[in-house]
Amino acid sequence: MLRIRIAIEEDFSVMLDIQRRAFAEYEGTYKTSGWTTETLEDIQRDAREKKILVAEWDGQLAGSVRYWTVGGVCVIRLLSVDPSHQGRGVGKALMQTVEERVIDAHKFYVCTMLRTARNIGLFLALNYRPESLSPDHYNHMDMICFSKYPLRP
To answer: Which domain covers residue 121, as residue numbers?
Structure first.
């Protein structure tokens, strides 16, 4: 059973392991060291400044996502799903939970590497629309960024 909750410090080392394994798939296509070499201190600093959600599958961590709102834009980063749980709706559930929790944003914004068809498909399926391309961006990779404008009553 899938459960989404706020991350606690005891989750951080497992989150980093999942993140390393999730991004390792793209090593060779991209230089992924920005995501695979993050430290506990890095995630602790992020936890002070951002919100972090984790997904549990039958009591074990299966993924995480970080987000924050600035200037009315909710920036979503580091959506990571354990490779053994990919394709089960974990990433979708994490994204939808961010959208449900954030009520002070007029826009959601998320980026991924350009040659990640699965990620791009996920964001399109969640009604995000391509907004910009950032060629030769972070670690010389091409990024595609998506946005979504929530309907508010």
So the answer is: 2-148
Would strands 107-113 and 73-81 be described as parallel, antiparallel, or unpaired? parallel
Residue entry with tokens 């987000």: 67
Q: What is the pLDDT of residue 100?
A: 96
**Mind listing the pLDDT tens digit for each residue in 123-134?**
999 999 999 988
Residue 8 inside a domain? The answer is: yes
CB of 46 closer than 8 Å to CB of 15? no
Note the pTM of the prediction, 2 decimals: 0.90
Q: Is residue 153 part of a domain?
A: no
Q: List own/partner pairs for 28-32 with CB under 8 A and 24 or more apart.
A: 29/113, 29/115, 30/113, 30/115, 30/139, 30/141, 31/139, 31/140, 31/141, 32/139
